[in-house]
Amino acid sequence: MPHDEDGNPFVRVDWDIRHLRMLHNAVTFYLDHRVEEFDKTKKELPEPTEAVIEMKGTLNRMILEFNYHKSNTDSV
C-alpha cells in the first residue's frame, strides 16, 4: 500500500466527477442527519464532527477545481 510523505497509508480510486458529487451529497446528508440518528440509538458518534466537515470541505475543493478547469477548457 502506498504512503504519503508523512508515512500515512492512502488509496487511489479511479472515479470521475459524478462519483465525487455522489460522495459529497452523501457526506452532506450524513452531516445533516447523523446527530439525530445516533441520538436515537444512544450510541457515540463514530468520528468527530470536525473530521466530517473537513472531508466535506476537501470534496468541495475537488469539485470546484474540476469546475474551474472544465470552464477554462470549454472556453478555449
Explain what the structure shows.
The chain is mostly helical and 76 residues long. The protein has one domain. 67% of the residues lie in helices and 0% in strands. It is extended and about 50 Å long. The chain starts with 16 loop residues before the first helix and ends with a helix.
- Total strands: the figure is 0
What is the total domain count? Answer: 1
Helical percentage:
55-70%
Q: How big is the Rg?
A: 16 Å
* Shape verdict: extended
The SSE order reads HH
**Mean pLDDT over the full residue set:** 90
Determine the number of helices (DSSP H or I, runs of at least 4 residues). Answer: 2
Span from first to last CA?
Answer: 39 Å
The profile of the biggest β sheet is: none
- Contiguous low-pLDDT stretches (5 residues minimum) are none
Q: Roughly what fraction of the amino acids lie in strands? A: under 5%
Structural class: mainly alpha
Oligomer: single chain
Give the topology.
Elements: H1 17-41, H2 49-74
What brief labels describe this structure?
76 residues, 67% helix, extended
Could you write a compact summary of the structure shown?
The chain contains 2 helices and no strands. Helix 1 packs antiparallel against helix 2. It has helices spanning 17-41, 49-74.
